[in-house]
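hey so i finaly got around to running the thing on Peroxynitrite isomerase from Tessaracoccus defluvii. pasting the sequence first so u can double check i didnt mess up the copy paste, my clipboard has been acting weird all day
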Amino acid sequence: MDIEVPEGLNPSLTALGWLVGRWEGTGNGTDHEGNAFEFEQRIEFSHNGGDYLFYASQTFEIGADGAESVPSGMEAGFWRPQPDASLEVVLTSADGWTEVLVGKIAVTRIDLVTDAVVRTSSATVSHSAGQRLYGKVEGDLMYALDRATTEHELRPHMWARLKRA
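ok and heres what it spat out for the 3d tokens, dont ask me to read them lol
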């Protein structure tokens, strides 16, 4: 198994070292009304010597001509691994919500479930719960994100295969 440990990485982040860097690609999803969509995405995991990774993700709608067009979503947060291979993730979305996820790291697979969600009164999505799966497959970052809202139960929302940029 090829596990990267970037130079200067805090030793407590070793299990997440394979995530560090920029990832780009396209993905698919189903919006909250059940409509299919395709998107372009950029994700970056970075570190500053602390015991957490900084995460930033931005998605863009893909226009009829196949080119990225309008920004469609952005989230940022912190990934905090624990000594027992558990993981705490705090994410904030530009759509008006913050989510705390907890889960487990299993080499190059990460499973996360929502522990708590807080929404602003103007949140564009009534996000209430989620689960995420991240993994390294053939050198790529693959993920699936399921989401529940106050209007529907947990269901697939977004999935993608991203390449290291």
